[in-house]
Specification:
Length: 110
Amino acid sequence: MKFRELLDSWSEASRPMKTAREYAIRLNIDDAARIHALADLFPGHSEEDILSDLLSVALQEVEGAMPYRPGAKVISHDEQGDPIYEDVGLTPRFGELVKKYRQEVGKKAR
């Protein structure tokens, strides 16, 4: 999801499942003002909802920005028959860690 899609989604009522654990953060004054302004622009969405949604989109952007780093192992071939090498960059390790922690925090979800 991109930030523009997020703005569109705030008009919908469905909310994803949340963890039981809370994460406390301190914002700088300008960011806090922006969060409050967004909550005013989109009634029915709390500051917490806005922060959660923005963080979700930002994390998707971070994951998408992780560069592919080809390894030595050929895992497939493309339509032209050229080899596709396994990714030995941050993406596979990040995916493994996400799966690990998803199971851990998912047990405590509400």
